[in-house]
Every structure is written in C-alpha cells, then in structure tokens.
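Notes from the 1:1 (GR / supervisor)

We went over the backlog. Supervisor wanted to see one worked example end to end before approving the batch request, so GR pasted a single chain during the call. The sequence is below; no edits were made to it. Supervisor asked that the structure be written out right there so they could see what the output format looks like.
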Amino acid sequence: MGESLASENSSSARLPLVWRLAGRELRGGLRGFRLFLFCLALGVALIAGVGSLAEAVRGGLARDARTLLGGDVELRLLYRPASTEALKTFAAAGRVSAIRTLRAMARSPAGADRQLVELKAVDGAYPLFGQMQLSPPGPLDAALAERNGHWGAVADGELLDRLGLKLGEIVRVGSLDYELRAVIRREPDRGADAFVLGPRLMVASGSLNATGLVQPGSLIYQIYRIAYAPGLDGKAWLADLERRFPEAGWRIRGLDDAALGVKRFVDRTALFLTLVGLSALLIGGVGVGNAVRAYLEAKTNTVAILKCLGAPARSIFALYLSLILLLASGGVLVGLALGALTPFVAAAPLARGFGLDLAVGLYPTALIEAACFGLLVALAFSLPPLMRVRDLPPGQLFRDMLAPVRKAQRWADAAWFAVVLAMLIGLTIFSADDRMLAFWFVLASFGTLIVFRLLAIAIMALARRLSHRRSGMLRRALADLAGPGAPTRSVVLSLGLGLTVLVAVTSVQGNLRRELAETMPAAAPSFFFIDIQPDQLAAFEALVRAQPGFSDLESVPMLRGRIVRLKDIPVDRLPPPTTERWVLEADRGLTWSAEPPRGSRLVEGSWWPADYRGPPLISLDSEVAHAFDLKLGDHLTVNLLGREITGTIANLRQVDWSTLAINFVMVFSPGVLEAAPQTHIATVRIDPAQELALERRVTDRFANISAIRVKEALASVGRIVDALGAAVAAMAAIALIAGIAVLSGAVLADRRRRIYDAVVLKVLGATRDNLLGGLALEYGIMGLATAAIALLLGSLAAYGFVHWGMEGDFVLLPGVALGTAAAGAGLAILIGLLGTWRALGQKAAPLLRND
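Structure output shown during the call:
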C-alpha cells in the first residue's frame, strides 16, 4: 500500500489513482450522502425547472406574437376613429382589421340579471392571424351576422352562467338585443388585453352603433391591426407614419409588445421563483457541508492511517474532493432531469387554464445555469471541511472527535474559496433579469448567514458560562450545546434559514389578506359608475339619492389622454423607471378641478385659486413625479383627442389609492379641458341590501352607463392573492423541506458523538428519560432562540416587500409570530429526538469492547 501511495508523486499517475480510489469509496454505497444528493437535486431542479418553463413561455409568446397581437402592428386610439387619410395609409400597408372595445352591461331578457362585460366589436377581417375556436364549431362571421331580425353574439361561458342563459336565447346590450349563438373556447388575441373586469362578449362592428353606447366621450378604444404586405419594411413604414401624423395620439404596439403584461408577469415570476430555488439551494448547501463533515468524521481513522503511511495531504484532499464532485454531479444530473421535464408537464395545464402555448423543448441555457449553481454550491460548502481534514496531523485526527482544534486557514485556501464564492455571486447577479434585486438577495443571504452564525456562537458562549451554575438535565443540555463537536452551528443555521423564509412568506400573505379583508371594504364605495354623459348627470344623481340606503355620492368629469412628453422630451427617449413605467404605457385618466380631490394631500407647492383661468397647470401624483425626477415648474404634455396640451406642474399630491375614492395621477386646472368630449365617473356608497336594486334602476334607465361592483372586483383580487399566496407558500414549503432535511442531516451528523455520550452516561447510571429530557432541553433552547431571530429577519423581509414593493402598510401578525416560534422549537425538538433515538438504545458493552 505504501508503494502505491508513493507512486502518487508522479503527476501522470496521481489523477487516475485518485479516481480509482474514489470509485472504490462509492462501491460502499451512498450511506451518509443521501441528504447531500437530495439537497442538490432539489435546488437544481427548482432552478432548472423555473428557467426552462420561463424560456418555454417566452418562446411560445415569440412564436405566436402575431396571433397574440392580432397583426404585425396595432394602432390604438381612444374616443375617436382614425381619419380617412390614416385609414388609406393603413390599407396601403397590407390587410387591416378594425376593432372597437368598451365595457358595457349585458342583461337577460327579463332584465332581472345583469353583468358587466368586456364588449368587443369586430369586423369581417378579424382575426388576421390565428383562429377563433367556438362551441359549437363554426365560422365567426356567420355566428355574428344579422339573421332573422337579430344580430348574433358569442360569449365566454362565464357570462351564460351568470345570466342563466342558454345558446339561442337573447342578451341585451344597451338598447339592442343579440342572439347568443356560440361559446368562446379560445380567442387568439386574448393575451393583448392586460386588464379585464368581466367576461368577453363579442359582436359584429356593424351592430355597435345601434346599441346606443357610442356617444361623445364614451370610453371606446378604436383598434387597428395590420398584417404587412409581403416585402414591406415595417420599421420604415412606422417611421413614415409618425412623420405624416405627428399628433395622431395613437398608441403603437409591435410584435415585441405582444402580450406585454403576460411577458412581464412571466419574467417577474421566474425571477422570484429562481430566488426561492436559490434559497432552497443555499439551505441545501448547509446540508452539503454537514454531509461532508459527517462523512469525513466517519473516515477519520482511514485518513489518519493514510497519513501515517505517507500519503501526501494533497492526494487525500484530491481523493475526497473527487468523490464529492462525482456525487455532486449525480445530484445535479437528477435535478436537471426533473427540471427539464417541467415544460412538458406544465404545457397542457397552462394551455387549458391561460391559453398559453409553450414552445416545449429542452433549454440548454437554463440547464447549464442550474448545473453551475449546483456544482458551485457543493464546492463552496465542501471546501472548508476538506481543507481542515487535509491540514490536521495524524495524531490530532485520532483525537478530533473529543477535542477538535481550530486551525488558521491558509492564504491560498482563502483565495480559492473566494474565487468559488465570487463565481457563485456573479452567476446569481448576472443571470438574473433584475440584477439589482439579485444583488439585494445576495446581500440578504450573506447577512442572514452571518446573523445565524453569530447566534450560534452566542448560544454556545452563553451555554458554556451558564453550564457551571446549573445541575441535572439543564446542565447537561447546556454542556452539550457548547461541547466539542456540538451541532449547534449547523442546527441553528439550517433551522433559521428555513424559518426565515416561512415567516417572510406567511407575513406577506397575511398582510395582503388583512388589507383586502379589513381596510379596503371599510373604506371602499359600493359601486363605480362609468360613461355617464354630462346631460345624464343630474338625473343620475337624483335617482341615486332617492334610493333607500344611500349614504354618499361623488362624481367628477373624466377624460383619458396619453403622456407624450416630460420636461419637453418625448417619452420614447426616456428610459422609464421600473416602478412607475405603467404611467407611460397606456392612456391615463385625468380631470380638472378647482379644489384638491378627496383622498389626497398636497406635499409640495400650492393649489391654484378656485377662479383660476390662466395657462394650464397640473397637480401630479408625488410618487410618479419622484420616479421621473419631475419638479415644480417642469412641463408635462398630454395628447388628448389628437391635440397636445402642455401644462406646468404646480403642485404634488400624495394619493391614498387604497380608499378607492375617485382620484387621478394628473389633475388639470379649470379652463382647459371643459370643452372636450367627456363623461363622468361616480362612486356610490349604499346599504348592501339595496345594491342590486340600485344597479337595476340605473342600468334600466341609462343603458349606456356601466356599473362596476367594487366588492366583486375586490373578491377577484382576493382570489388572485389567494392563488398567488398558495403558489408562494408552496415554494416556501419546498425551502422549508430543504431546511428540515438539512436539520435532520445535522442531527445525524452528530449521532456518532451522541452514541458515545449515551453509552458513557448509561454506564454512570443515567436513564432513558434523563437522556431524552436533556436532549429536549438542548434542542428546545436552540429552536426557541433560532425562531426568535428568524421572526425578526423574516418580518424585516416582509416589511420591506410590503412597504416598498407594494407600498402598503405592514402590520406584525402575532398569530404568525407565535405559531412560527412554537413550530420552530417543536420541530427542532422532534427532529433532535428522532435523530438520536438510535443512539439512546445503543448497548454499552459492544461499543466499549471495540474501543
């Protein structure tokens, strides 16, 4: 054996021998490394699965961009159709489809039931790309055509259920009756609609004017989609269109913007889930370190004998590093296989539930990134115990279990460890779409690791000091916490990371539900009524005030316009900030007022006089102003009905959007917008028992007015929050499972020492109850201390997300705090007792004879 080891000095023979020895170690089975493999496979599978799924969704969106957008380009106008000259220009570019969309009330024939719908009026060319799928199957134009005195309509099945209708029956929209002829199974361009408040109802464009809904100022979007003629240069055509119609005011969307909301949601969700996967991998890294440490402790005698026989330290290091890399590669491959299957498994549910067709396949970039994460984490957490064993002399290795020695780290080792860590950090940050968020994740991870490391040191120091002043089980528990080879560091770290993630998630979810269940309904109005014509306002208000149970009514005039310049700079030349980019992406509601609107307060500047009639002044939301670095005196230009109006920012308001009172990002001074076509929007508070009666009276008398029930909207938001909370909780559960596995590994890694302790104590007269009581105290102390710190860190993380990310009010939830503390302590005690049960039952005689 000595000759074999001596031959290692030849560099040509060293590596083959190392790999052969590593292979021999593997023949003994994976005992001690199952946790190692589980932790790596779980984290890698999460990262690979999320990355592959996100790429599959993006690929599907890119592949189906024309279908999702409805054309090669879309031009959208509000209130008014395009000019005759513009329509000729569109027609010269290729095939054109004209669509009108608005919100309206659909009613059953008897008028007893009604439902807000997303009304879509299409022409004969719709859809330019893709196919409408109807039930029963048939062409769309035939289903919408006028026949037997009735125009046809197709609708979501949800609308038929809510109104209690069947195919062939009549649904009234405005003052026109439509015959329901088919149920929409799939609408090819549904992804182009970012926000909906009701089910879809689709009719022929030629029938819309007869409904009475098309009135001056009505919120009707005129949408023109164009399928370019072969050979047309789309970019050049759009540039020429902008030059020919500089103040048209249309919003132009190209293929890159198809299903923009879906794409952004996918990107943000993928980033979040990737960070959860990294959290699980980070927790698993602790398990990797525990598994390696436990394995090397079991091999202490072997390593010491090899060193006594002359084996170079670097060869022993290479042997066990090779073994660990082989095992890590196996865990990574298992994770990659599971992650690669994710798009194939998710394709059918996503297509069925969201109408998304995934580009199913293997995505090497996502898999390579996940593999790199797995290998780097395994390497980062394996190097410290490997370096320690390599540097200890043979004699100390024999004594290491009873009297471990701390050894200063070499500069070269520190440099190698720093390189691995830098690669892991760099991969985390530069592979993320939002690098700033990834940077904060890395910073928070380091902070959390440091805090729990310091906590473990503090527990050990305090236990060491107090153990001399106590007696019985408590003294033994304190001594075990601070004794040589104690698992305090690994238990505190693994339990703490899992509990921190769990506290953060449950706190965020609880605050979202609290905001919806408590704050919003108490302050929110019962209804929003939209599209009230100016000549209907007085009659509408009189009808509402006469309704029993009425308590409050507020109405304001409203127009919608698009911001086109900030500080006299076109907005397409300004990179919008991430937090407030929505302000520039669509038409914004605006109004004018002589007095500050309710639900807001001035934070900068002063309000204009009530009789002001000078140049246009603007009151702007303060958060929007700060996001775009706008100050008092800066100019802001809005395109309204094809006319550009420039105003000066006179004051900034802080708006409390959570009250759901009528408010606007922009409020103009009087004397500017009054002559423009306009409608009014109103909020009404009324006794819940009278809501249905009021809705019927208003919509029966004013067919063009749409009623939005706030409670239904909040309930929809609540369902979204619940679904999101369930998904987040599932991800947190995965991280917690990793934490439990790592905690179990830490206990098992300490089992060898526990066996010796249990045997000696039983020889000295200790009973099983004494041993169990001491263990319960030991793990209970660790569990309670760790849970307390996890509560603090998790609550801080939740506060940051709710306060800055969601701009809400954070409230510490005592039930979550106490429940998590109790669960943490109970979990630590349970796993500690289960993990050392075998040690307590170990017989003394065989062990003492072996030693």
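Supervisor's comment: Confidence is low (pLDDT under 50) at residues 1-15.
Batch request approved.
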